[in-house]
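Write out this protein's structure.
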Amino acid sequence: MDAPEEDLDIKLQKISSDLIADFDKSLPHFLRKPDGAVRSRVRTRETERLISALTRRHSPSRTATLRSDLLMPLPRAICRLVYTFCKIRGEKVVVRFLSNEAKYLEVLLSALEEAERNQGVEAGGWTWEERYVVLLWLSHLLLAPFDLASISSQEVEEEDLVAVEGLRWPGGLPSITTRLLPVAIKYLASPGKERDASKVLLVRISMRRDMQGLGVLEALVNWALVALKPREGVERTPYHYIGVLSFLAGILVSSADTSDMDRYLPSIFNTVHGIAAEEDKVGTMMSSALARKTMIKVLRAMAVLVLRNEQDMAGMELVETTIGFLLESLADNDTPVRFAASKALSIITLKLDTEMASQVVEAVLESLNKNVLHARNPEDPSAAPKKDLSMVDSLEWHGLMLTLSHLLYRRSPPAENLAAIVHALLMGLSFERRSTSGSSTGANVRDAACFGIWSLARRYTTPELLAVPTASLTTGHHRLGSSILQIIATDLVCAACLDPSGNIRRGSSAALQELIGRHSDIVEKGIWVVQTVDYHAVALRSRAVQDVAFGVTKLAGQYGEAILDALLGWRGVGDVDAASRRNAGASYGMIAAELASTAKDPLQSLTQSASLVLDRIKALENRQVEERHGLFFSFAAVLDALPAAAGSRRDSTLEMFVQLSLDSLSVILKDCDTKTYRKPELIAESASQLIIASFPALQASTSATADLLPGHSLKSKSGPDLAKLVESVDVRSEKLSTIIALIGSNLQKWLVWPDLDIIEAASEAAVVLMMFCTNAERDEAIGKWAEASRARQASKTRTTSGHFSALAAVYPLASALALDDQSIICGAIMERWRTDKETDTRACILQSLMGSELLRQNMYIFIDIVVEGLEDYTTTARGDVGSNVRYHAIRVTKSLWEAWGPENEGPPVVSGLFLRILLLAAEKLDRVRAQAQAALAVVLKPTQAAALQRSTFSSKSYFLFLLDLLQEDWLHPAIDEVKTDPAKWMAVLMSGLVSSADTGNEELVISTRAALCDFCERSAANTDAVCGALARNLRAWQGIDRVLVPTLEVVAFLFHVGIFQQCSTANYKSLCLQVQKACYKTGNVRKIEACIRVYGAIAELGRGGAAAAAPPAGNGSDPRKEEEGVREARARLGALMFHPLAAGQGCGC
């Protein structure tokens, strides 16, 4: 879970001033006409634009199916904008900007009643945004400081009162109240935002002092209690109960500082708690998470009201029952309910006396210990047992952790009880559980733990925290004698570097900053740790696991030791993501090497790090393939650090490390050879990397004087250097012979996997194998791989792709040792290319040749392969599958150009690939065009290469650059000879560019055609070059619709914009003949349409007005030839009238 490099909130902050300025500028014109009059209707599209400017969500606008939908009434548009402001800033803030003049009260109420009578938007009714804003405004107007009876302008008789089920109307109510209550109660059951506004409106009415005197509060409370009780035969939606409960919660919260609701508390509690106790009878209500959350708010408000005064037995029973219910709700399946329950518990606990508050904290801690198992280490029975959390309920733990966090935030627990709380928070910080589907269910717990640690650091003083005992908190990765603050900081560093969730990493970073900032000079290297484990630095997981973890290790070793221990757990080698396990393995090696570099004995430290990994490997079950994959990478990373740690040492410590490594490698390779794992591709990749990394250990076992080298360095060494390393091998022990045999046996199985990661790793491992083989063994292995390369695999899941790469990888060594395998390798690859036309196979062959010594030394042999690859346009039911071959052929060409270098003049055959790359740099496929752009930059002068790479490969400037390349002196001199035939250059470029100008995506077509027009308008010579190339391509590409049809379309386009008519060399009659050949006996409708467009453009030249107004026509100054072309075009158009498709024959017409 990697966060983007630049967060959206940062981008929004940068452009917020522009957005507000644009909104302010647009609003007056939106509301008023140019003469200043207020508009009655506004454009729907403009309303959507203003809303989009506020929310920055480019959601699709409402589809306008009728002409009337294009406009909307101004009040409706204003209400939508006001609602948007409420959504962004909150209704409590926005409502303060509404007018509070009481004269609008009856006006708004009358308008609302009128809209109620006209149900439906088409009949003049209101949308939900209008109802929401008006109800909200009415609730704001009810803050008027004088009686509603003095505002009401009419009287309502008792018989005219609207009947509301369960509501007994008090007598003497003013008309405003009798009109507002039915509307508010109606929308209290709405599923939309009107429910929130109605709740506020009802609370305002009921809590007014004049309305309480008339009995409105009592009537509404009694109505709410009746409405909550289910009735037989009456179906009610969950929104009905949510609205009623929210109303009760609202009036209870509003009366927190008064005694208005005290007499209603027992009846409300009995009703609400009774509903929760009889869950089966009120399934509709309890099935809604929002209803349960609102019910918790009601119970919380009642408990707070009871605790405000001295409690009697009934009050204490109410509080205790509420606390018990909240503790049960902490395990609710829905997160909002757990949030509400934890917050309610913390608020209630804050109001309790010290003894009772301690009991609540103890109850939470006891729940955390429920279903926690204690597992002893079978290898060390005397060690303290470790806690096993596999049986706990992750949802309940989330609720409990949230409760502890909220309690700490309000400083409810006394400082004496912090030891158990801190221990629970640290367990929560590393908590992880996975569902049966494999998804994580522990992220919520860790997030709550981050909040708890942040609250702990913020609310408690340094002496209070330092007084917390640490005996039960120090584990294997904590140093003895560490303070509680250091222990917490170390665990936060691990979480910030390694946690899979970006929110947890950032939350841990924020908590760490709060901890170190509030309690300075306690944590080791505190300020530097905060700067390294930065909030933004940990956003990208790969950077956090490697760069940040390595940086904090360099500050203090204890952080690195803790991270090493965590990397061997679920946050590192046990991660479900393969890429994350690779990063974890690389990080393990980097940190182990850094710790070794600061240790007294680097090799001893490295041996300990390797032993930790090997012990974990031995304890694995066969089914734990993912963990094995990660541990192999970790062991490989440790072996990579051997050359730096050993230096020039040749002592017993090095010998012990080498023997440990070789023994473990032998066991691992034997298991890989004899056992069948669940995901063999993961084992193949990681074990191959382990073989590569084992090179320095193998080297140390065979030579006592050679300088140890990392295994990955072999890839960059030349053949003679590899030959010298082979000659340095003095003796080969029996153990080494066994390992070499196991490597060869495993590679023969791994090289058939099609995955690129496995191919790359296995081919590098093949080089390590060759380094320690005898000449006979080398010949035998290369012969087997060559034979496998020639044969085609019948299975789709097994290929010979790896054998190509392995042969290319070992070729430098074979050529340096003057083995006979050189011709065998080249012959096997060439034979497979000739006999196998599958694009996947050809792409693999080209991929194996890219950047290899095999290609550079045998360029004249393989150049035909590269040329064929650049021209592979194989199309199947899957589409243009040949594009993958072209893509890899471009990469091979780029590697050839880079190998020869700008200062060397390569063979002419290398420069002969330029025009093919130029064609591909202009073609329609983005992937191919982007790679060709990078290859093209290699043969340009440095300034022009930088300019080309700055242009995006789909921009107008990019295609103009390609068109200008012929005329400008931008090419390297070694390639400059390709300009000797400008006509051929332009024809090749046009054959690629027409595909982008016709069949590419819309933006690509626009930019390509714009570049083509600009280029032609610069000079008549450019126009002649482009039009002449297109005319020649019509002749050269007859029968190949891939180029022919786009060429016809571009010719028609150039006629349409008046460019082709300016060509001084155009022969319209010849052009018509080429178009006729293209159209002859074809069933391609698109080609026929393109031909018709070209014929029509030429025929248009013969019209009276057009001929006189046209610029100097083609065919030089001979109007007779132009007339012949026009007649030919008209004749061809007439003939096409009898085409079978035009006549409706054969097409079902």
